[in-house]
Write a structure and sequence with these properties.
The structure is a single chain. This protein has 699 residues and is α/β, with parallel strands linked by helices. The chain is built from 26 helices and 14 strands. The chain has a four-stranded mixed beta sheet with strand order 2-1-3-4, covered by helices on one side. Strands 6-7-5-8 form a four-stranded antiparallel beta sheet. Helix 26 links the parallel strand 12 and strand 13. The longest helix is centred in the N-terminal third of the chain and has 52 residues. The radius of gyration is 40 Å and the shape is elongated. It starts with a helix and ends with a strand.
Length: 699
């Protein structure tokens, strides 16, 4: 016997742990049992147990609603509300079955819980019971449930309407560097959950109203049906039938309406909580007690009311004294808090100006930073600020066009800059700057000629075109004259775009290259690792940087890795590897150069220049040198620039086609004078590409 008693707690513990481990099965079983009560008769004992569970769950839900910090902490409430509503309705069906079948045996026919409610709350008098039940239904249906439903509807509509603005605010904070990617994802998750919760609460509030209506209808059916059954089938008099069935029905109505009222109160607490954080006592009592003068005034009024004839003076005097004491205590606490705040501010003011950032953060440089002068700060912190969103959209642009993920752009104010100046920095070094006029529009003459319109003359910072800052009211006039009108945000975005394009190789760091590799399948990661090179990632980085410097997209990274693996087996020269990769990307390169007629326009070199370029190349194994006199280089640049400027005037950018061996050197010569001009070799012309020679340099 002793051994048996010793093992009993262990067995019980194992049973409880097994039950907790299979909570999903237990929950599903509970839902099935609730549905079963609609069809299977329950004995009075089981019915009492079910009614006790219903009441306990209602109290538990109310307590949770009182203590949660935010409504999202109880976002399972709509689901739970459906379950407990179904539980009460199932119990109503079961009690109805017992009342109508056994009500002739007395008020104990439907179990002790119903009888206890009928005797304790209404004293067994069915007239009093009808009045109390009617009042509870009115309170639940007309007051609490109706108000909660309206609040849930408004909260759901406002939450959905505000979602785009909140999303833009998150994007703006992310673009300005106020939050990082992880914080942005967390805020978006909370926003989505909030919208889903209030939307679900809008629908769940209908359960509460429907429950109240169903309880009222079931009660009427039970009373009328019970009296009819008692008279016609059980041989009871009208008085006996009315007493038995009405008392039982009112007890049943009370035992279901009280939990319904409690759950309705919990739902009301949730939807009225809104954006207030903290438990209910913190959200309500702390705010009521935050104004001692209001407590003193309320105490004085209560004390005066106590002197009115017929009013209990002691009751009102006690209330007045309690509120006065509470006001005095709160006034002392507020004074202590104010003293503590002043002391903390004084302590902070006495401290020397020491950097608060850790050394690691101080040494870290922003890959991309946009500094704004004082007058330009509204471009990022005003309610309708569009600059952060436009800057953030650049990431998608570079991903789609170049397969290159630019680092986040940190936007911050800089008091050292002139008020209307912005500066673009890369790796902590200022690369470009420009001036803006907030509230004005920039008007640019597309042909680059002088713009004849009233305004402040300036130069467009990206391409150096003649421009004028004009008032917004003149923007429509300028557009009507065929001029290009640009807002300040677009001026900055365009300038930033061109700067990034120019410095893409610098921004493609080793870490960024590794991230690109990690995004590939394991097969290509293994292929890169198997390259016979001491640092295959560095080799790939140099190849990608070379491609980006000529504005060739690296989106087809698997193809590039394959080409690098092929070329690195026969040479260690990065330039030769790059040329092999470009050959493998011939279709992509030609496709990017196709004009509206389906041709690839090219400018070719005359025989003289082709021969001179070939003779200038000196090879010694993998070492290749290009030897040409500075005078001839200058003459070549002048000859090419003449044709390039001719086509650029009509916004045409044909490629310069040269021999494969001389292509990288011709590109290096033209890189400084015309970085947008593509230089391709004969090997990079895809077999299906249609060439169109538009000019020839020299003879």
């Amino acid at each position: 016997m002793t051994a048996s008693n010793t093992n009993t707690p262990k067995a019980t513990g194992r049973d409880l742990s097994g039950l907790l481990a299979n909570r999903d099965v237990a929950f599903a079983f509970g839902v099935v049992m609730i549905l079963g009560m609609l069809f299977v008769p329950l004995p009075p004992g089981l019915l009492d147990f079910g009614l006790a569970i219903s009441l306990s769950l209602a109290v538990l839900i109310l307590m949770v609603a009182l203590w949660i910090q935010t409504p999202l902490d109880f976002n399972s409430f709509p689901t739970l509300l459906l379950v407990v509503t179904m539980l009460r309705l199932s119990l109503n069906v079961s009690t109805t079955r017992l009342i109508l079948s056994e009500g002739h045996n007395g008020t104990a026919a439907a179990g002790q819980v119903i009888e206890g409610f009928s005797r304790f709350m209404v004293g067994g008098d069915f007239v009093i019971g009808i009045v109390i039940f009617s009042i509870l239904v009115i309170i639940n249906f007309i007051v609490i449930t109706k108000g909660s439903t309206r609040i849930a509807e408004v909260a759901a509509r406002f939450s959905l309407d505000a979602m785009p603005g909140k999303q833009m605010a998150i994007d703006a904070d992310l673009g300005a560097g106020i939050i990082d990617e992880h914080q942005a994802r967390e805020r978006r998750r909370v926003l989505e959950e909030e919208s889903a919760f209030f939307g679900a609460m809008d629908g769940a509030s209908k359960f509460v109203r429907g429950d109240a209506v169903a309880g009222l209808i079931i009660t009427i059916i039970n009373v009328l049906g019970g009296i009819l059954i008692g008279i016609t089938s059980r041989g009871l008099t009208i008085g006996e039938a009315a007493n038995n069935y009405t008392v039982l029905t009112i007890g049943d109505g009370l035992v279901t309406q009280i939990p319904a009222l409690v759950v309705s109160l919990a739902a009301g607490l949730l939807v009225t909580k809104g954006g207030t954080k903290g438990a209910a006592n913190e959200a309500v009592l702390s705010q009521l007690g935050h104004f001692p003068r209001a407590l003193y005034m309320a105490a004085g009024l209560c004390f005066v009311v106590g002197f009115m004839p017929g009013f209990p003076f002691l009751v009102f005097a006690a209330l007045a004294g309690g509120m006065a004491v509470m006001g005095y205590v709160m006034q002392g606490q507020l004074a202590e808090q104010e003293k503590l705040r002043i002391a903390q501010e004084a302590e902070a003011a006495d401290k020397p100006d020491t950097p608060i950032d850790p050394i690691k953060d101080m040494l870290k440089l922003d890959d991309l930073r946009l500094d704004l002068g004082a007058a330009l700060v509204p471009l990022i912190n005003s309610p309708d600020a569009a600059l952060p969103g436009k800057v953030k959209s650049l990431r998608n642009l570079f991903i789609s066009d170049y397969g290159f993920v630019i680092p986040p752009v940190r936007i911050k104010d800089d008091i050292t800059l002139p008020a209307m100046t912005y500066a673009i920095s890369i790796h902590g070094v200022e690369t470009a700057r420009g001036e803006l006029r907030p509230g004005a529009m920039m008007v640019i003459e597309p042909a680059g000629a002088e713009v004849n319109i009233v305004g402040e003359r300036t130069r467009e910072p990206t391409f150096g075109l003649n421009a004028i800052w004009v008032d917004k009211s003149r923007a429509a006039e300028a557009e009507g004259r065929g001029l290009t009108v640009v807002d300040p945000e677009s001026v900055v975005t365009t300038h930033l775009t061109e700067i990034i394009k120019e410095h893409m190789p610098e921004l493609l760091t080793y870490s960024a290259t590794q991230e690109l590799i990690d995004g590939q399948s394991k097969d290509y990661q293994k292929l890169l690792a198997d390259i016979s090179n001491n640092a295959p990632v560095v080799l790939l980085q140099h190849v990608l940087q070379a491609l980006l410097s000529e504005r060739v997209s690296i989106r087809n990274l698997p193809k590039i890795i394959e080409a690098v693996a092929e070329a690195s087996g026969t040479t260690k020269n990065v330039q030769i590897v790059v040329e092999h990769v470009r050959t493998q990307l011939a279709k992509q390169i030609c496709q990017a150069l196709v004009d509206e007629n389906g041709y690839v326009p090219v400018v070719t070199l005359g025989q003289t220049w082709e021969t001179e370029m070939a003779n200038a190349i000196s090879r010694n194994g993998d070492d290749v040198n290009f030897i040409m006199s500075p005078q001839r280089v200058q003459e070549f640049v002048l000859a090419v620039r003449k044709d390039i400027q001719h086509f650029a005037a009509s916004d045409q950018w044909p490629a310069l086609m040269v021999a494969p061996d001389s292509r990288p050197y011709v590109r290096s010569i033209l890189e400084r004078v015309s970085p947008m001009t593509q230089v391709i070799s004969h090997n990079e012309v895809h077999r299906k590409a249609s060439l169109k020679t538009v000019a020839t340099i020299g003879t």
